[in-house]
Task: structure prediction
Amino acid sequence: MSRAVDGSKRKNHRKKILKMAKGYWGRRHSNYKTAKDAVTKGLFYAYRDRKDRKGDFRRIWIIRINAACRAEGISYSRFVQGLTKAGITLNRKALAYLASEDPNAFKVITARAKAALGA
Result:
């Protein structure tokens, strides 16, 4: 059986890859062979970095909470320990939001954490 070189399936597949490579620099957006490699690598990075993004956000939240805690005279680790003892179950995203948007509420939470540590 002869090899199909200009069939619609083959053409559609190549067109799909080149469409995904739109905006790439040099031959990577017009030459199928290089575009295929670039798109494969790009899709791999996109998959991997979707997972990494969660950790990045967690790091940012911890940095924000730590800065707000230091302003209240307590370290982040002691603050989290105090929250646990006080039975406050707010996640880091919510705490970071409170620290930046509602400092008064964060002060109240910090005071409760400090009280739980002192007791």
User: Anything to note?
Assistant: DSSP finds five helices and no strands in the chain. The radius of gyration is 26 Å.
